[in-house]
Every structure is written in C-alpha cells, then in structure tokens.
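Hi,

I'm pasting everything inline rather than attaching a file, because the server keeps stripping attachments. The sequence lines come first, and each chain or strand is labelled.
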Amino acid sequence: MFDKIFVCLDMAGCPNRCRHCWLGCTPNGRLHADDLRAVAAAFRPYARQLEVASWYREPDYLPEYRALWDLENELSDRRTVTHWELLSVWRAVRDEAYIPWLKTLGIRSAQLTLFGGEQMTDDYTGRPGAYAEILATMDRLLKNAIALRIQVFVNKENLTDLEVVADLIQSHRLEERCAAIGMPFAAFVHQGSCDGENAKRVAIRPTPEDLAQIPPLLVEHTLRHFGQTSLEAVFGQTEQTLFSELEADGTTASLVSEQPVFFVDKDFKVYPNRSAPAPYWCLGDLREDGADKILNRYQNGASPAQQARKDVPLGAMVRACGDPSSRRLFSKDDYIDYILNTYCEVTAL
Ligand code: SF4
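And the predicted assembly:
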C-alpha cells in the first residue's frame, strides 16, 4: 500500500512535436472516459490517496475536457485536483469558452513556451502557426486577468533569437499589462533536462561562454524566477566538472518513492515519471499485467533503468557514457538521469 499514487493517462497526446519535449514525441491516441475509470480502478486498492489525471502531454486537448476535469475530481481523493499552471494553446485559440473556464478553476497565472521569434518557435514547437497562437493566447489570458509566465528553452541554435523574446516582452508591454491585473509577470530561460527529444540535441546544449549572449532582461527575470544570483547557478556545471566529480562515485540508488507518479501511455504501458517514458523505464502493460504486478516491479526496482541504477555504480556509468572533455552545462540531477538513460541505450537494456 502506498501513501499516495498519482496516475496520469495519456488520453489524447499533443498537437505539438516540440524538439525539446522531455517526454519524447510519440503518436497520439484517443482514449475515452471509461479508460480513465479503468486506470483509476486498477490503482485504487494500492493507494491510501489516489490522484488521477487524464493527460500528461497537452492538457485539455480533448473536446470533452470539462467532463474529464469533473471525472478526474470524481476519481481522485483530493476535493479539487491540480490543474498546474499549464494550458492548451491549441485550444485557447479555437475555443472561446476555454480561458474563461480556466479562470473559474482559480488559475491566476499560466506558462507559455517560446524558443525565440516566429520561425524559431514554429520550428521548435513542430507546428506552423504556433508562435502566432501563443501571442493570441497571451492577449486572451490577460483579458481574463490571468498573468503570464514565459519559459524559453535555450541551446546553441536559438541563442541569437533570444533578443526577439526580450523585444516581445517590451513591445507588448507584458510586465505593465500583468501589473495592471495585479499580478507579476514572470519569464525564465533554461536548457531543460536532457531526456526525450532534448537528449537528441545534447551536442548543441549551452556551454559557459553562451550565457553572456542571454539578453539582460531575460537574465534579470530568470534570476528572479529561480531565486538565484547568477546564471551559472541556473544552468549548472560543465560535463567536464561533473564527470571528474562522479567518475569514481561507487554509489547506487533505489529509484522508488512512497508517493509515486505514474504515466500510463495510450497503449496502457506504465512508466514511473522519473524521465521520458522510454522502453527501459517500462514497468509493464496495465491491461495484461495488472497493477499488482506493475507496482511490485516498481517497488523492486525491476524496470531496466531502475535495475541499472540499483546495481551499477554511478561512476561506472559515467565512465562508460560521459564525455570528460565536454563543456555542456547540466544540473547534477539532470546529468545523472542523462547518463543513466544513455547507459540503458548503449547497453540495450
Ligand atoms: S513539450 Fe509539451 S507541448 Fe511540446 S510536444 Fe511535449 S507534451 Fe507536447
């Protein structure tokens, strides 16, 4: 019995194919309310507290999003489940009632993701017109007194486009317009974790000299957002430094939590939400194996990735998969996950 289980079912996928997507881009499915009921019923006997979500890619992507929100609440033990501060830009520009509905949930601030200007954002979001839709969504959010938080993913390919984001903040008076609704405007840049689609772009991950190219306005907002005093603290250390710190590390780790979060994909394969739902994280097929077997595998660290982290000393994986001369920047936790994923891939676990 777990203290709490949070289970998220990928009922519809996502309209985007973001090049940084830490979940990895996989085909969309089309599941139904009864599938969510079945997933909740499967995990219910094993959790003192259960929380259920109908998505883990694009929120509110299905036309019946309101009914699904009600169903999430009905199937969850919390009186009101979390909507986070995420929204569907795709829906925001196609459904007049959507943002006013978000407002009724008590959302005061929402996050939007840019990669630079129009071309760069469309390319990186994987959908023509994405940038124009994000801009239109900003206006609709502000009209409904919901403040903006802009996230910008950075790598060597879009560094020079960051000035366009700083210009947008100023030319659209985003700070002033948020202040007018009594909420702070927020923005931040970061490189993202190095899994899913973003792991394919490891070669263009930022290095220390790139940080000087981040426009001052974005630096100021980033430091405020993360409560840090330097960009180095936000972007982490070079791989070179992390490699020498960890190459002799003999520790192993159990990747098991008393309050796990599980992703269930459109084919009912179950993954812990530690990293991208890759085959080496898979705990089994919910319909074939049942929750009991899957939770046993989870608790015993039996997915290939959990097993590797439990059995193989960290330093051995770092020596096998790290690059001692690389100056690419990582947080330590992201680097360990990147090394573990790479180890699973190269050893074909
Ligand atoms: S990052 Fe989010 S919006 Fe982009 S493809 Fe992944 S799930 Fe979809």
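The chain is about 40% helix and 15% strand.

If the labels don't parse on your end, tell me and I'll reformat.
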